[in-house]
Design goal:
The complex is a heterodimer of chains A (99) and B (214). Chain A is mostly helical. Chain A has 6 helices and 2 strands. Classes of the chains: A mainly alpha (99), B mainly alpha (214).
Chain lengths: 99, 214
């Protein structure tokens, strides 16, 4: 089941890249498409942050992950490199669980 | 130009180290983790899929979100197609390397030959380092008895945030990000895990396609 999902998703991502190279450019140069597609990652990444920080299944929760996100926000605002942001967030969660 | 491409590829190694670690923590096997970096090869989609699976969402919600995050690559490919002028088998090869970094490097060049070279150099080097980093991150994490001890299960939102931050430099994307996060939170109690993401995607698509243009 996991494999099917991984392979279908990979094929979809590859198909999107190939479609852009193969389809007539004017199909995808519609102003509304050009405007909408860049908004998708913004909205989805924000929604991913919200759901994976504040939910446990279908329950809203606030736990160590909220603190980890707070530390990540500070690291990003300080323009820390990617790996530092990840390590700081993970370490925050790990330390708070030890308490 | 090779040096620029190499430095971007090495920097991506840091992303992929954390991807390998997070993906392994989410319960995927080494082969599954590597198949994502080899076959999917687009960072945000990979992080989203393993984050959703790791937090108990269905793999299909993860797959749908990964595909939606991959739509931007289609627009990159449109911009690149007139530059690359690839046909036949080369087009199938070139497609896999159409990502944020290779596009940015290629379209930044004034000369078309330089642009083509930058695309291939960045794409191929990044692919090599991305997969090497994923492998190292995954192997290192597999060696741990419980990756939760390192807090790695709490790391995906930090990864999304680091991927999101560079896209928030104007007011509209910032407002959309805040609204999307709020809508997702409101949906959580009412629908299965993973579905809030698809609701958010549908709403932002409606806004983009039919809302008044800025």
């Amino acid at each position: 089941m996991i494999w099917a999902g991984l392979l279908v998703a990979s094929a979809a991502c590859y198909g999107l890249k190939l479609a852009g190279l193969s389809l007539p450019a004017r199909w995808l140069q519609d102003a509304r498409i050009q405007r909408t597609v860049p908004l998708l990652p913004v909205a989805l990444l924000a929604a991913l942050i919200a759901t994976q920080t504040f939910s446990l299944g279908q329950h809203l929760v606030v736990d160590v992950r909220a603190a980890a996100l707070g530390v990540a926000v500070i690291a990003v605002l300080l323009r820390a490199p990617f790996l530092v942001v990840i390590v700081a967030a993970a370490a925050t969660a790990a330390l708070l669980r030890l308490l | 130009m090779i040096r620029d491409a190499l430095s971007i590829a090495i920097a991506s190694g840091a992303y992929s180290l954390s991807f390998g670690a997070i993906a392994t923590t989410s319960g995927l096997s080494l082969l599954q983790v590597m198949s994502l970096s080899l076959l999917m090869f687009t960072g945000a989609s990979q992080f989203a899929l393993v984050g959703i699976v790791g937090s108990g969402g269905s793999v299909w919600a993860g797959a749908a979100t990964a595909a939606l995050l991959g739509t931007r690559n289609a627009l990159y490919a449109v911009r690149l197609s007139s530059l690359l002028k690839v046909s036949g088998l080369r087009r199938f090869g070139a497609a896999q390397f159409v990502i944020d970094e290779s596009t940015a490097m290629a379209i930044a060049r004034d000369d078309e030959n330089d642009g083509r070279f930058a695309f291939w150099a960045t794409g191929l080097l990044l692919f090599a380092f991305w997969n090497l980093g994923t492998l190292i991150g995954a192997l290192a994490t597999t060696a741990l008895s419980d990756p939760r001890v390192l807090g790695l299960d709490a790391a995906p939102p930090a990864a999304y945030l680091a991927l999101l931050a560079p896209r928030l430099r104007a007011r509209e994307p910032l407002a959309i990000a805040l609204a999307a996060g709020l809508v997702a939170l409101i949906c959580i109690p009412f629908v299965p895990a993973g579905i809030p993401l698809l609701i958010v995607a549908a709403l932002v698509a409606l806004y983009g396609l039919f809302g008044k243009s800025a």
